[in-house]
Amino acid sequence: MIRMGRSRTEPQEPANTYSQPTQSTPYQAEPASSSPSRAVTDSEAMARDIKEGRLSGFVGHGTVLSGETNFQAMLRVDGQLVGSVSSETGTLIVGSNGQVDANISVASAVVNGVVNGDIIASERVQLGRTARVVGNIQAPRMIIEDGAIFEGMCSMMGARKAIEQQAIESARQAEEEESLFAESNAIEIATETDADEDDDELVEAAKG
C-alpha cells in the first residue's frame, strides 16, 4: 500500500448557534449531551476507505513519488507521480492538484488534474472539468466534462480489441493447462497398466 503525505484539510467543528429568545416563545437550551452533526472531511473519508480496503494508496499534496507503481483497489494522487502506473482491476484517481507524468494502464481512471502520458483503461476513462491530459487514450468508455483539455488521440475500438484479445489469450492458456493435465493423467494410467502387466507376467512365470 502506498501512502505518501497527507491532506492539508483539517476537520473543522461548526460553531454552535442559538436564536435570541423572545417573550412569546420561551428559550429552551439544548441538552449538554447533544452534539451538532458535521460533514465527513476528505481525510476521514480516505482513512475509512484505507481501513476498509477500498483505497490502496494516497500520494498527498506536495509529495513527489517516482518509480514503478502497482496497486489493486484504488490509488488517489494529489501530489506528483513520475514513472509508470499499472493495475489490472484498480481505479486511479488524479485530484485537481495532482500530476502524473507516466504511462497509465488501469481498469478505470478518473482525472481531475494533469496527466502527461498515455492512458490505457480496460473499463473507462473520465476527464473532469479541471483535467488536462497530454497523451493518447485507449478505453471502451470515455466521459469528458465541459472544460477538460485533451491533447492526443483517442481509440475506443483498440481498447475493446485489446480486452477481447486478452480474454482469448486467457481462454487458450486455460485450454493448454487442461490439455497438459489430461496428458499427465494418461501417462500415469499407462504407467500403472504396464506395471500391472509386468506383475502378472512375473506371477505366471513363478507358477510355471
Total domains: 2
Number of strands: 14
Mean of the pLDDT scores? 75
Uncertain spans, ≥5 residues at pLDDT below 50? 6-19, 21-38
* Beta-strand share of residues: 25-35%
In one word, what is the shape? Answer: elongated
Q: How far apart are the first and last residues' alpha carbons, in Å?
A: 74 Å
* DSSP helical segment count: 2
User: Percentage of helical residues?
Assistant: 25-40%
Largest sheet: number of strands, sense, barrel closure: 14 strands, parallel
Query: Helix and strand succession?
Result: EHEEEEEEEEEEEEEH
**Class from secondary-structure proportions:** alpha/beta
What Rg do the Cα atoms give? Answer: 30 Å
Keywords:
single chain, 208 residues, alpha/beta, 14-stranded parallel beta sheet, 2 helices, elongated
In summary, what is this structure?
The protein is of the alpha/beta class.
Question: Care to describe what's here?
Answer:
The structure is a single chain. With 208 residues, this protein is an alpha/beta fold. It folds into two domains: 122 residues, no CATH class; 52 residues. Helices cover 29% and strands 32% of the residues. The protein is built from two helices and 14 strands, in the order βαβββββββββββββα. Strands 1, 2, 3, 4, 5, 6, 7, 8, 9, 10, 11, 12, 13 and 14 form a 14-stranded parallel sheet that branches. β1, α1 and β2 form a beta-alpha-beta unit. The longest helix is centred in the last third of the chain and has 51 residues. It is elongated. The chain starts with a strand and ends with a helix. About 15% of the residues have low confidence.
